[in-house]
Design goal:
The protein has three domains: 169 residues, HUPs (Rossmann fold, 3-Layer(aba) Sandwich), CATH 3.40.50; 90 residues, Uridine Diphospho-n-acetylenolpyruvylglucosamine Reductase, domain 3 (2-Layer Sandwich), CATH 3.30.465.60; 108 residues, Phenylalanyl-trna Synthetase, Chain B, domain 3 (Phenylalanyl-tRNA Synthetase, Chain B, domain 3, 3-Layer(bba) Sandwich), CATH 3.50.40. By secondary structure, it is an alpha+beta fold. It is 40% helix and 20% strand. The strands form five sheets. It has a six-stranded mixed sheet, with helices on both faces. A five-stranded antiparallel sheet has the order 7-8-11-10-9. Strands 12-16-19-20-21 form a five-stranded antiparallel sheet, with no helix packed on it. It starts with a helix and ends with a strand. Helix 2 packs across helix 7, helix 5 crosses helix 8 and helix 9 packs across helix 11. The chain contains 14 helices and 22 strands.
Length: 440
């Protein structure tokens, strides 16, 4: 842990009067970081505010909150907590992260804090990098996360980035630090857990210090990204002003610079939420820019919308009243109703949330769009029916019908109403098909 302490003293230069908000789950990582800060506070006059979020998905979490609160009381440390009462229909991990960081930022303002510390460590960095490589990301995204991020009025710091989970647990045991284990981390339900429980042990077996190699990889990518950003700054003001891309000037640039400008805009838009952005979103924006249509748009994650109006393109919050959309189905589509459609390799289910399609029956590409007046679907046994009548039969609420996704091919032939009904062009599991789509 000496690397962590050296970083806090020599590089971050913690000083008397600094206020640190510490995100603490009562897990082994955050409790180790808290112990380090408490020992530093004996030498440097820093104030520590412990911020605890109960995600309300495990019965043990309420007891853990009480144990952490008692620990803080004994150490005379400020303790703040919140419970996430309910979640929406969005991705659980993304939604929980947003709520968590909004809580942290409220505490930063309340206590006028200089720093927000989180307990992300070297293993977390490896997992993040691998997940983003597989999913697709920006150059900055591929680097995972940095030791320190300047957030304007405070700095987000991850001091444990130098050490592994094993080193952290060993430190806890040697120093008799209490903590709780979240047993859900051992389950492979979430994507990160599968990387953690399957790929990480293999990498560590190959090289015990693999975390140092990934840290170097991360820092190298960040250096290149910073350099390219400095070069971008020399030209971007001619192309991108007031959140608007001027398309004619943009198209004059080298393709690499064009792509990097889109990446930079997405990085500025999504900040540290780059996990939800992938290469398909970049492709959608590039296709929108090159589209011959004077007015068009595509939806992006977190209720964002890229809008093209003649020679200008703008990324902004989607207006709830905007109900018409048409999005090409590539590998993954995030829909305005907070659901998604993705291509998958296999699944046992054959319900209305799954659609199997043969190339012989449709014309690519596929699109997902809102309904249009007069839309009809050809059914397997009962001929042709109006989409409107299908919605009525299935008791779809009237206020949801205009935004409900409909999958069509390039000839505008209705293939599937996700979650509701499939057309005669879909296949059963025992038939021949080329792709599988899943509605989540």
């Amino acid at each position: 842990m000496q690397k962590v302490i050296d970083y806090l003293i020599n590089d971050l230069k913690l000083k008397d009067g600094d206020v640190v908000v510490l995100g603490n789950s009562y897990g082994p990582d955050s409790m180790a970081l808290m112990d380090i800060l408490l020992k530093l506070s004996e030498k440097i006059d820093i104030s520590i505010v412990v911020a605890h979020v109960n995600h309300n998905v495990r019965s043990e979490s309420f007891q853990e909150k009480d144990l952490l609160e008692s620990f803080c009381m004994n150490k005379k440390v400020i303790f703040e907590s919140m419970v996430i009462e309910q979640y929406g229909d969005d991705n659980f991990e993304n939604e929980a992260r947003t709520i968590r960081y909004n809580f942290f930022e409220d505490l930063i303002k309340k206590y006028n804090a200089n720093y927000l510390f989180t307990a992300h460590h070297g293993d977390d960095l490896i997992e993040t990098i691998l997940m983003r490589i597989v999913r697709g990301s920006t150059l900055k995204g591929y680097s995972g996360f940095s030791k320190c991020t300047d957030c304007g009025n405070y700095k987000l710091v991850r001091p444990l980035i130098f050490v592994t989970k094993d080193e952290i647990v060993k430190y806890d045991e040697e120093n008799n630090i209490p903590y709780a284990i979240d047993k859900t981390n051992l389950e492979n339900i979430h994507t990160r857990n599968r990387y953690r429980n399957t790929i990480l042990p293999f990498l560590k077996k190959e090289d015990k210090k693999v975390n140092e190699k990934f840290l170097k990889f991360s820092e190298t990518l960040q250096e290149y990204n910073d350099y390219i950003n400095r070069e971008i700054e020399k030209t971007i003001h001619n192309v991108y002003k007031n959140n608007i891309i001027y398309i004619d000037k943009y198209l004059e640039l080298d393709p690499l610079i064009q792509k990097k400008i889109i990446y930079k805009i997405l990085e500025d838009t999504y900040k540290d939420d780059l996990m939800i952005i992938n290469d398909n979103h970049v492709k959608l924006i590039k296709m929108l820019i090159k589209s011959k249509k004077a007015n068009s748009y595509v939806y992006l994650p977190n209720n964002k919308k890229a809008i093209k109006t003649y020679n200008e393109l703008l990324i902004k919050d989607a207006i709830k009243e905007s109900i018409d959309y048409k999005i090409e189905v590539i590998d993954y589509v995030e829909l305005p109703n907070k659901h998604s459609i993705s291509k998958i390799d296999s699944i046992d289910s054959n319900n209305n949330n799954v659609c199997r399609i043969s190339n012989e029956d449709i014309v690519y590409p596929l699109y997902v769009r809102t309904r249009k007046y007069g839309d009809k679907m050809q059914l397997k046994k009962s001929g042709t029916r109006r989409i409107k009548d299908i919605f009525i039969d299935q008791k779809v609420p009237k206020d949801e019908r205009d935004t409900w996704p409909i999958v069509v091919d390039s000839c505008d032939k209705v293939i599937w109403i996700p979650g509701i009904k499939k057309s005669k062009f879909t296949k059963q599991k025992n038939e021949t098909y080329d792709i599988i789509l899943k509605y989540d």
